[in-house]
Amino acid sequence: MAHQAGGQRSAPRPVPDTPEAQAYLQDYTTLLAAVPFPSVVLDHRWDVVATNTAFASLFGGVGPHPTAMPGDNFLRFVLFHPDASSVLGEHESRWCLPMLAHFADAVERNGHDHGLQAIRRDIAQDPIMEAAYRQGLPHWIRAVGERGVEQDGAVRPVLHPDPRWGATDCRVVDETPRTLGEMGYTRLTLILRSARRPSPTPRRPGRARRATGHLSVVPSPEA
Length: 223
Fold this sequence. Notes:
alpha+beta, five-stranded antiparallel sheet
């Protein structure tokens, strides 16, 4: 998948537009800090509103990127950061494609949003990513079914830089309370499981790079 994104970093960070909502978010961020698992609050563009220390620890080994840092926009990180596969196991099928499916749904519902349009332009600028979006995504959704696209409850592999976790799985849990949802935000928590047995050739966190080339989910031209 693509290693670069040509769009601008989302700025400033999303902030509620009333003092009451800002106070709620501030208190909610305090609650987030007490959670032992990686947890993040996102807006409808996947811009990061708040995270906790566990989230920062999971992604602390990734290198710098002008537009796709996990603490800025999580969708851009998954799609465009070259280090994403060093943290997100089975990156293409278990992370990229489900998030592309959610993005496609968001574009269909709110296609005039300038932030979503910017991400769509960046997808279109890369032939492999565009092929995944236009050809691979419908092919993959047919293969896995609607349940495979759902975010809440999904179990996905991660490669934690902390050896106490290492190569493991996490369950994605949508923990959005009503008030947060009414503000247009979503909270996701990654419930980490005990570390798996190490593979014979373990990957070094923070070093793996996403390979380029034809996506396995995109039907070949002669198919």
